[in-house]
Amino acid sequence: MTKKEKEKMRLDIITCLPELFEGPMNQSIVKRSVTKGHVEIHIHNLRDYSTNKHKNVDDAPYGGGAGMVLTIEPIDMCVSKLKEERAYDEVIFLTPDGETLNQNMSNGLSISKNLILLCGHYKGIDQRVRDHLITKEISIGDYVLSGGELAAMVLADALIRLIPGVLNDETSALSDSFQDNLLAPPVYSRPAEYKGLKIPDVLISGHEANIEKWRHEEAVKRTEERRPDLLSD
Ligand code: ADE
Questions:
Q1: ∠ Cα 178 153 131 (to 5°)
Q2: Total structural domains within the chain
Q3: CA 113, CA 90: separation in Å to the nearest integer?
Q4: How far is the CA of 99 from the centre of ligand 1 (A)?
Q5: What is the structure's pLDDT at 96?
Q6: Pairing between strand 193-194 and 197-198?
Q7: Which of 43, 62, 151, 166 could be a cystine partner for 94, CB 3.0 to 4.6 Å?
Q8: 104 and 214: one domain?
């Protein structure tokens, strides 16, 4: 097995809105990572697994109540088919009541080989899916989106950029905000002075150790000001 094959990640995304993925998954770093063979992204339309003639994937909740619920059958059919083809590290359901995504979780998941991401929709999803098919539930924050699709894209992006070789400069993912529980320090580019606004002298000193020290101090300062909670973790 070549190094490249070993590190390749496969994402199977199950959704009833496959069109939503066309733009975001075909741009920039995600697109390049697919082209360069670091990741395969397969989008599965849940409706293709519906057994009724209207291709419905939802139904009214037992016991009454507003809204429709995604039914278990098409999800089970799709997940079972995928699992017959290969083993999965996790079957993830994107949901606002899941564990909140953070950099630590992304780092852990980025070494996965095969992941299924299931996007919820409508009012909810049959609890038997969550109890028996899902191995991990992830939220991207304390707010409710209309569906799990945007959350799945956020998760996919966060994981893909961590795959070795995806970013040109491999160190740049390591210097991201939240790695080491610190926000990233400020960065500057040319010109060194713009309309009287100067960049810090240390950055043009050429003294690498001083520059590293300055960056670390700025990262700590920024974290203390904006996210003191990160320093007490
Ligand atoms: N689906 C709806 N809202 C969501 C959220 N905040 N995170 C993940 N999936 C969701």
A1: 95
A2: 2
A3: 9
A4: 11
A5: 96
A6: antiparallel
A7: 151
A8: no
The C-alpha angle with vertex 60 and arms to 59 and 65, in degrees rounded to 5, equals 155
Per-residue pLDDT tens over the stretch 121-156: 867 999 999 999 999 999 999 999 999 999 999 999
CB of 154 sitting under 6 A from ligand 1: no
205 membership: H or E segment, kind and range: none
3-state secondary structure of 44: strand
Q: Are residues 79 and 21 in the same domain?
A: yes
> Taking a C-beta distance cutoff of 8 angstroms, is the pair 118, 135 a contact?
no
Q: Are residues 135 and 21 in the same domain?
A: yes
Rounded Cα–Cα distance for residues 30 and 58 (Å): 31
Please choose from 99, 106, 139, 155 the residue to mutate so as to test ligand 1's pocket, defined by most ligand atoms within 8 A of CB. Answer: 139
Q: In this structure, is residue 217 part of a structural domain?
A: yes
195 and 101 inside one domain: no
pLDDT in tens, 37-60: 999 999 999 999 999 999 999 999
